[in-house]
Design brief:
Radius of gyration: 28 Å
Strand content: 35-45%
Number of domains: 2
Distance between the termini: 41 Å
Shape: elongated
Structural class: mainly beta
């Protein structure tokens, strides 16, 4: 039996029209009366998807774009939106034209078209889409479009109200590496207090690694190996949390204290995850899914969600991803032109961008052949592996995945 599914692609447009007025009066000369087009500004100021605020759907002042899968008869998709008249000198006469219902989709849009939208005021609309007939066939794209046209209507006095703010992306490009004005590999992007280096873009998907390790775990103050817990850890990135910092040749430690160091997992965590399981079914100590570091990453994901950045995935980087950006596991190096296997210069090592090894951190990839060993990256550019209970040098440096359309 074929899977019943309709992939719904939708767009909501707001088109702004101008009621231009031109006249000439003669009072010992010529004076021209014209509409103040610069003042007339109608825009989307908020959007809510199935009851949850989601302003990321607003791509610019006049466009809302959404994607939604719908497959069960009776299933609905609801998009609520706010339209604001940002003008102080003009009211707006608003009319709407939406895609008609189809054989499979019932489409309704509620918006008051009878009453002018007064200057500086906001009005809510609701677009509702329902699957009214079962669809049997390959996944199909259906475009749903609404055009909201606002035309200026003159007022006798200027409004003293305050219009709703326009929606701005929570994300910004803080370092435009190639100065092209758009997000690219190598750029530093920022959400609130958190910044990330973009290391891969595929289609609309951006993968970016945290600028710093998370402020979690402990601190190694000297070469004694004694780790003390961080006081009041924030769980967010912190410039001091870089893990182990080394001299270029890797022979001499430097930069103590090493902050934000954590074991990959602990015996307690491992035993807890495998409680009640037979020996043959027990998970390995280097399984990311039962690790201590994953707990830190998941907590960080919750904090990012509070910043409304529409982060799709929060995780640790993999060995394979590091190889794709230039790290060489055979020569234990992410540093261009250097072989850490024998501590010599080696022009054959392509190397990763330097921002990939500005801190020392765990990956999520187990080292094959050993149940308690995991791959890591160190600040000098080393690319190696260590035991999961090692707690003195490596930190938690999350990777996120977000939509390029956020920029």
């Amino acid at each position: 039996m074929k899977r019943r599914s309709v992939l719904l692609l939708g767009m909501l447009f707001l088109m702004v029209g101008f009621a231009a007025v031109t006249s000439t009066l003669v009072i010992n000369g010529n004076a021209r009366i014209a509409s103040n087009d610069d003042d007339f500004d109608v825009y989307f100021s908020a959007s809510f998807e199935n009851g949850k605020k989601k302003n990321s759907l607003i791509k610019d002042d006049t466009h809302i774009v959404f994607d939604y899968d719908i497959s069960m008869v009776g299933e609905t998709y609801t998009l609520e939106y706010d339209v604001t008249n940002g003008s102080r000198e003009y009211d707006a006469s608003v009319s709407i034209n939406c895609t008609n219902s189809t054989e499979y989709l019932g489409i309704t849009n509620e918006f008051d078209e009878e009453t002018n939208l007064l200057a500086t005021e906001t009005r809510k609309g609701t677009l509702k889409i329902e699957l009214i007939k079962a669809y049997a066939g390959e996944t199909t794209d259906v475009e749903v479009t609404c055009e909201i046209v606002g035309s200026a209507v003159s007022r006798e006095e200027v409004s003293d109200g305050t219009p709703a703010d326009k929606v701005k992306s929570a994300w910004e490009i803080t370092e435009d590496n190639d100065n092209n004005g758009e997000v690219s590999v190598g750029d530093l992007i920022t959400l609130g207090s958190e910044s990330f280096y973009v290391y891969n873009i595929e289609g609309d998907n951006i993968s970016a690694i945290a600028r710093y390790n998370l402020h979690v775990g402990g601190i190694l103050a000297d070469e004694s190996g004694d780790v003390t817990p961080i006081e009041n850890p924030t769980g967010l990135q912190d410039p001091s949390s870089k893990g182990a910092m080394y001299e270029d040749n890797g022979a001499t430690t430097s930069g103590f204290p090493w902050s934000g160091v954590v074991p990959y997992t602990t015996e307690e965590k491992y035993n807890q995850a495998n409680e009640g399981l037979s020996e043959e079914n027990k998970l390995k100590p280097n399984n990311y899914g039962i690790s201590v570091v994953k707990e830190y990453v998941d907590e960080y994901a919750t904090k990012l969600a509070e910043l409304d950045g529409e982060v799709k995935t929060t995780r640790l980087i993999t060995k394979e991803e590091l190889e794709s950006v230039g790290c060489d596991p055979n020569k234990y190096s992410c540093k261009a032109g250097y072989n850490y296997n024998n501590m010599t210069e080696d022009a054959e090592v392509a190397g990763a961008p330097e921002y990939m090894y500005t801190t020392s951190y765990w990956t999520s990839s187990p080292y094959e052949g050993f149940d308690d060993v995991v791959w890591y990256v160190r600040s000098i550019g080393g690319f190696g592996y260590d035991r999961v209970n090692f707690d003195g040098a490596l930190g938690v440096r999350p990777v996120i995945e977000i939509s390029k359309s956020l920029f």
